[in-house]
Every structure is written in C-alpha cells, then in structure tokens.
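pls design
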C-alpha cells in the first residue's frame, strides 16, 4: 500500500516550512522576531461588530444549523455593498453566496467546475490557493509569468494559444497578493471581452478591494457590461474589517457559477455560525468609519516601511493597495534566492518575511513583506535590516546559500 495519497502527491512541499521552523526555534530560544511573514491582521475587530456577535450568540435559536449559501440578510447586505461601492446590481438569491472565507470559496469552486485534466490559467507569482485549489481538484495549471511592468493581456493570450486542452477558466487577482499590483476598468473590459470570445470563465479575487492608499478605489470586474455571464468575484471580510479568524467571505456574479458553488457547498457545510453571519451583516450595513481607519493604518505603516527600507539602502516599490510590499531582493544578494535571503533576514536581523518562491517560481527574485506589525516594530525592523545590509560580514562574497542551511 502506497504511503502517499493521489491528491497529496500533486502538492509540493510547503516552501514556507523551512523558514517557519527557523522562526519557531528562534522564538523558543527567547529571541524577539518581528514577523512580516503572514498576511494576518494584528488589530482587533471593531467593537460594534463584536457586540453584534455577542448579542446574536445569546439567542438560542441561533445555535442551530445555518444555511450553506448564507443567511438571506447577509446576502442582501452583500448586494447593497456592491450597489453603493461599485454601482453593480446583484440578485441576492442567484448572484450572491456566503463562503467560509474567500479561500474556501475558491477551493470549492474548483471542485465544482473542473475535472481531472482540465486546464486553468493562473498568473505566476500568485496567492497559493489560486493554483493549488485547482490542482487539488485534479486540474492542470497553465502558469503565465506576470509581475510589475508586465502586459497582462499579452501574457494571457499567449498562454491561451499554447494551452491544450483549451482552458476552462482564468484566475485574476487585483489588488494582487503578493505583488500588490492593481487594475483599472480598461483592463477588466479587455479581460471580459477575451473571456466571452474564448468561452472561458474568469475567477476574480477582490479580497483587497478596500485596502488602497492613493485615492483610487479598486474597481470590480462586475462593473463591466456582460461580466456576469462569465465572471465570479470573491471578496472577504478578513482585511476590510479585521475579521480574519471569523472566516466570512463571498462570491458574487455569474448565476451559473454561484449555483455550481452552492451545490458543492450544500454537500460540505451548513454555513458559518449564524451569529457570525449576523455580525457580518451589521458590519456591511453599519457605519463604515472603521474601514477608513483600517485603511489609513495600513497606509501609515506602508509609508514607515518604505521610508525605513530606503534609509537601509533597500529600494522597495511603494504598494498602491493591499497589505503587502513586494520587495526585490537587493542586487548583491540576488544569487541567494528568496528562501536563503529570507533565512538571512531572520537569522541576522530577526525579521521574518515570506520567500517569493512560495508564490511561484517567477517570484524567487522577491520577498513579500506584510504590513502586520505596528509602526514602532516596523522602524525597529528597518534599523536591523540596515545594520545587516551594511555589515561587511554579510556582503556577497561572504554569504553563500550553503552557509545558511538549517
């Protein structure tokens, strides 16, 4: 009997694990590690949302099974959000669904719409669930390299021409995790036209729609006429309202794709705990001052980080959106690759980041830095990084990958 199961064989070793083990050992030894590695919001959920959860949880009727598609009030709240934010009209019954975070929605949609051997177009680098949700479902991934400065449509069209069989779907993620790239309605218009012409679906991950810094709110692909024929868009409460552990997200758009996801979910779950859904409804329908406060917090952290790294002679592009900086490895350390450079930062500067290769092979020249520590800690990290990068003992001729093993 084989020690490995079929689906697990298709999953590579978790690339972050080596850095995570080093981080755990350092903390066990009492070292203070400043952790920019995981995109895990560090601030509490706004009090009025927590209070609504508590209120709803006190009602014994809310302790029963919920609905896998989400309670009607929450689906209506999502439709109202799309109407006021994007000017998009959604039918809460056929064009909205509640998920256990956007990650669950993406993974279960993959199960619903793909079969072994189907091809899916995914940009590289990308958030791991984008390719691996489909890999788990048995599909084949057709990666196309796309990063800052790239031509998205040219890359998509080239990948489609060389894809056999014809792709079933294209994954799109703006603002992007990990690259923080953004898109405008002109690009979305091209994507929708391409998908309709080629007869493929588009899966848009819009989880960072409210984390933007330069005055231009990211649009929704559903704003494009005809998009609902081919597009499903996933959003999340995690970043917008500091609710990562609550596990509430949404799918919106194509009735056909919403129905497919709903059918799969009906076999797998009864939906999130009803009080959580009631609290999420209060978040969407209630005062939005907290969203602006969260946005400004990330903007302030971004500015401190980018300025501090510049003073450390590490020039990192300032992200226009998302909660990440996509940082090119300094030229003199480029030969190390992202895993070894991340280990160097952890070992010498006590700063944890995510190796870019964890988001695909085309990310190996970068590391991802999450804005998940307060400004004081960010300044402390930048000082440590400046000391590391300026130290003669850490110059290229004295730092080799083999020296950092373990």
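designed seq:
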């Amino acid at each position: 009997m084989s020690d490995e199961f079929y689906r697990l064989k298709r999953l590579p070793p978790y690339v972050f694990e080596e850095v995570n083990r080093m981080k755990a050992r350092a903390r066990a030894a009492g070292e203070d590690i400043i952790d920019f590695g995981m995109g895990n919001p560090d601030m509490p959920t706004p009090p009025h949302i927590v209070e609504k959860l508590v209120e709803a949880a006190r009602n014994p009727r809310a302790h029963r099974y919920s609905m896998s598609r989400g309670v009607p009030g929450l689906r209506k709240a999502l439709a109202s959000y799309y109407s006021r934010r994007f000017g998009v009209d959604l039918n809460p019954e056929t064009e909205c669904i509640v998920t256990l975070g956007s990650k669950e929605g993406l993974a279960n949609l993959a199960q619903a719409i793909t079969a072994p051997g189907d091809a899916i177009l995914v940009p590289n680098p990308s958030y791991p669930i984008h390719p691996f949700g489909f890999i788990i479902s048995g599909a084949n991934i057709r990666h196309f390299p796309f990063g800052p400065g790239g031509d998205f449509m040219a890359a998509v069209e080239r990948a489609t021409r060389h894809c056999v069989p014809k792709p079933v779907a294209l994954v799109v993620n703006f603002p992007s995790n990990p690259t923080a790239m953004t898109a405008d309605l002109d690009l979305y218009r091209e994507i929708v036209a391409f998908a309709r012409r080629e007869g493929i679906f588009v899966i848009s991950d819009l989880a960072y729609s409210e984390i933007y810094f330069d005055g231009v709110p990211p649009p929704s692909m559903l704003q494009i006429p005809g998009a609902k024929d081919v597009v499903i868009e996933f959003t999340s409460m995690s970043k917008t309202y500091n609710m990562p552990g609550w596990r509430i997200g949404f799918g919106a758009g194509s009735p056909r794709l919403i129905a497919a996801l709903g059918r799969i979910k009906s076999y797998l779950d009864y939906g999130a705990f009803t009080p959580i859904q009631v609290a999420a409804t209060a978040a969407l329908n209630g005062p939005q001052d907290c969203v602006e406060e969260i946005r400004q917090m990330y903007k302030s952290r971004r500015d401190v980080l980018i300025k501090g790294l510049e003073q450390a002679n590490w020039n990192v592009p300032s992200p226009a959106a998302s909660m990440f900086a996509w940082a090119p490895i300094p030229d003199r350390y480029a030969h190390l690759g992202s895993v070894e450079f991340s280990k160097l930062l952890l070992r010498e500067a006590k700063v944890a980041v995510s190796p870019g290769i964890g988001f695909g092979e085309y990310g190996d020249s970068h590391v991802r830095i999450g804005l998940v520590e307060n400004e004081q800690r960010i300044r402390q990290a930048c000082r440590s990084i400046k000391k590391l990068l300026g130290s003669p003992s850490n110059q290229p001729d004295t730092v080799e990958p083999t020296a950092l093993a373990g």
